[in-house]
Amino acid sequence: MEEAMTRRRARGGGGAARRAERSAVVIETAKYIERNIPNFEVLNEEALEIIEANAETVLAEIGVNFVNNPAALERWRAAGAEVEDERVRIPRGLARKLCSTAPSQFTQHARNPEKSVVIGGRNLVLAPVYGPPFVRDAQGGRRYATMADFEKFVKLAYMSKWLHHSGGTVCEPTDIPVNKRHLDMLMAHMTLSDKPFMGSVTAPERAQDSVEMCEILFGKEFVRDNTVMTSLVNINSPMTFDDIMMGALEVYAASNQACIISPFIVGGAMAPVSVAGTLTQVLAEVLAGVAYSQLIRPGAPVIFGAFVSSIDMNSGAPTFGTPEASLVTYGAGQLARRLGLPFRSAGSFCGSKLPDAQAAYETANSLNMGLLSGVNFMLHACGWLEGGLVADFEKFVMDADQLGALHGLAKGVPVDAEHQAMGAIREVGPGGHYLGCAHTQANFKSAFWKSELLDYKPFETWEEEGARDTYALASGRVEKLLGAYQQPALDPEIAGALAAYVAEKKASMPDAFM
């Protein structure tokens, strides 16, 4: 019944909407990953208990800061915490008790119900890069991002089979005033794609705008009763919760919308250089943040986040794809599961300036780490370059293509009669080949994951076709995908109401670029 109601909500609006839907190109989107492989665990029971005990010590004896937020301090005081100035010391066990009301998994609904995602459990949802102020492509090089760039990324995410989510700030459109750009970004996600998306967190009032725009898109009652947004709430590590991020968290938690509570860790700068020390701080920060969300609204959906990189001690630059970052991520996954919370981490992380061999190595390390560590929501799954400063169009499609390999690996090893292939082994026997046997003929189309980007042709064919490297192939794929893009159908009345809301909001305030 709920799905039928949701379909009516998404598809309503009379004949124009139905005609548009019938004429639209069908874009295939793979279902979110359901892992059939084990999580890779690096911490034994003793190590987990030590880290958990140390995190409780951090909260009880050192404490965390909630800055410029008197209401938060009052909430903590009423809950039984010790508050001194802006420092909150949380008695042992209190944060964990508060966290117990957060759901272990939840559904984020998309306006196309077939693209809704379940975040938590054995699932992995893939979302694109988030936050870069710069973009790069083969034609224009490195430059400040614009709204036109943003819209192209939303279209590419919509067209990408292996991406389950449209993301949030896939790049920061610097040609739109700071106080208004969130409206344009949300409008793009809502109208240019039908996948799930993220809300704005740059000010509490912008979070409220996000909720109100969702009420137009989905209906007020649907938003009241369901989660339709996931948003990124970063902690200012070490152990500081600012009023901007907490203000956005307060809006979303009160509205039953999901937040990723995510420490921002650069090991050696924002956390200790040791893996165990970093995990202690990550757990303490997440416990405090998730607990606070439950003070706002018990049962509000949240995700245990861990953005982790190491640091180059010569330059101070963050480094990615390193063993230490992997160990922290694997350990954080274990801690998240013990808390019973969905886990966010990993992505297409790299420090390279170009989509080159360095980018490929670091990205492959980071993506595989995410799959094996039990991540449930992977932000930055494609397009990340230059330590997150750049969203790169060519790397976006390179990474998005490789996400298909994660889907394939996550399937695990079926051992039913068909996959045992004993009939094929008997049919071929010693000295034969399997190309023509019945089992191969029945399964060859789906037996192996196949890249839609990489070149497997013989040298002579490759040379005749221009000897294109991966970057050139990716550039062509960007052009092909954008050329084939067709906007998904949306009720014209809803589209008009969204446009009117955005126009009214923009007219109500002067432009601000700070």
From TrEMBL:
Keyword Cell membrane: no
Keyword DNA-binding: no
Domain of life: Bacteria
Gene3D superfamilies: Trimethylamine methyltransferase-like
One GO BP: methylation
Annotated InterPro entries: MttB-like_sf, MTTB_MeTrfase
UniProt-listed Enzyme Commission number(s): 2.1.1.-
GO molecular function: methyltransferase activity
Keyword annotations from UniProtKB, A to Z: Methyltransferase, Transferase
Pfam families xrefs: MTTB
Family as reported in the entry's similarity comment: Belongs to the trimethylamine methyltransferase family.
Protein name: Methyltransferase
